[in-house]
Design goal:
This protein is of the alpha/beta class. Strand 3, helix 4 and strand 4 form a beta-alpha-beta unit.
Length: 400
């Protein structure tokens, strides 16, 4: 009954989708009420903006329309299709999710998702057509200005980390960027699909048309992918050329991006930066790292690094030191000194690797933790300097 959802205004359109059961999630309903679909279509298609049907219109004139493929062509899916995709994406407000929109068009869906996910989310939109991107940037900017002065902005805040870039979504490198949710706005081929699924973080969900089927793909631990066919659809094909890599901001930690990271990451940062040493207290050796080093190390850790319990740490290079019940002999002291020197040398190697810009692998971090635990067994006196900063706090969520 999706065709019955058409209305004469954005409010009537959304209300009809709710009445006919097309739209159910309260947060999505509020976001769709807030983002006026009519503000994201070209002027020649305004009269069709609130009909429950796809919209396609030309925004550029002259030679652009005769090019192959033509530039400046705006495509918006039918409203009921967007509602189905929003439901399939399983958007979780407040989780500081990262969202990628491949073939983002006029920016309509990106704005809707931004309001659903909230202020702490990170929204990346990629559009291959520069004329469409220019149009979209204008639409999004107008919406942000009007929304900022609206009473709804308090309950539906727009995220600070909202980026639109020109480029080909198939050219994004998974080595630097992984996403919790991905929407594919045009029909992708089976052959090109791995270039998108490789961008999914563990637990991530991608929704979009693959051939003539709308599918949901979920990544589980161990690089497992589960594909569900949701319905039959007809989308325009995703453009695979030109091969322009989008200049997307890196999803790395910094003090300015702290608020848009998951709770598990934020808590871990706070714990490390607030650790301090008091005279006479046995502390972990990690507390001797100055905060400047910690902030550098965190920038090499993925957003979900602390989301799940870490696997058991691998064994340290030498057996753990068993503290003797009596005074150690000269040989035992020499052996202890040798082990301490080995641990210190390994820590020094990791330290200089980080300073030289070499990304930390998961195994490297496990070894650093194991070495710290090993040194901790030596009952190091806590009179040395701590690695914390007393003025660090986790309340700076309002990054401008």
């Amino acid at each position: 009954m999706s065709w019955l959802s058409s209305g004469s205004s954005n409010e009537e359109l959304v209300n009809n989708m709710v009445s006919y059961g097309v739209l159910r999630d309260p947060k999505c309903i509020s976001a769709l009420h807030t983002v006026d679909r009519g503000s994201f279509v070209c002027s020649s298609m305004k009269e069709h903006a609130y009909k429950d049907e796809p919209v396609r219109g030309q925004i550029s004139l002259g030679t652009a329309a005769s090019q192959s493929p033509p530039t400046g062509v705006i495509h918006l899916s039918a409203p009921h299709m967007y509602a189905s995709c929003l439901d399939a994406l399983r958007l979780n407000e407040g989780d500081a999710m990262t969202f990628l929109n491949v073939g983002s068009g006029s920016g309509y869906l990106s704005c809707v998702v931004a309001l659903v996910l909230g202020k702490r989310s990170v929204i990346h939109s990629v559009e291959i057509d520069p004329d469409v991107l220019d149009f979209a940037e204008g639409c999004v900017q107008e919406f942000k200005i009007s929304h900022a002065s609206s009473p709804k902005s308090a309950s539906l805040p727009f995220p600070n980390a909202f980026h639109m870039e020109h480029g080909n979504g198939l050219c994004i490198s998974p080595s630097s960027t992984l996403y919790d949710r991905i929407y594919i706005g045009a029909a992708i081929s089976e052959e090109a699909l791995p270039k998108i699924t490789d961008l999914l973080a563990v637990g991530g969900v991608a929704v979009g048309p693959v051939g003539d089927s709308l599918v949901r793909i979920t990544r589980s631990a161990g690089d497992g992918l589960r594909t569900e066919r949701l319905s039959s659809v007809l989308f325009a094909p995703l453009r695979e050329a030109p091969a322009v890599r989008p200049a997307l901001p890196a999803l790395t930690w910094s003090r300015s991006s702290h608020a848009s990271h998951p709770d598990s990451f934020r808590e871990s940062v706070k714990a490390c930066l607030l650790c301090s040493a008091k005279p006479g207290v046995i502390i972990n050796a990690a507390a001797f790292l100055p905060p400047e080093v910690w902030t550098h190390v965190f920038s090499f850790c993925g957003r979900q690094w602390f989301a799940e319990p870490s696997p058991p740490s691998p064994p340290i290079p030498t057996p753990p030191l068993a503290l003797p019940a009596s005074e150690p002999t000269a040989e035992e002291l020499a052996e202890k000194l040798g082990r301490v020197e080995l641990a210190a040398r390994r820590l020094k190697e990791h330290f200089f690797s980080v300073l030289n810009g070499v990304p930390l692998e998961r195994g490297d971090v496990h070894e650093i933790l194991a070495l710290g635990n090993f040194i901790d067994t030596l009952q190091v006196d806590g009179g040395g300097r701590g690695g914390g900063v007393a003025d660090w706090n986790d309340d700076d969520d309002d990054d401008d």
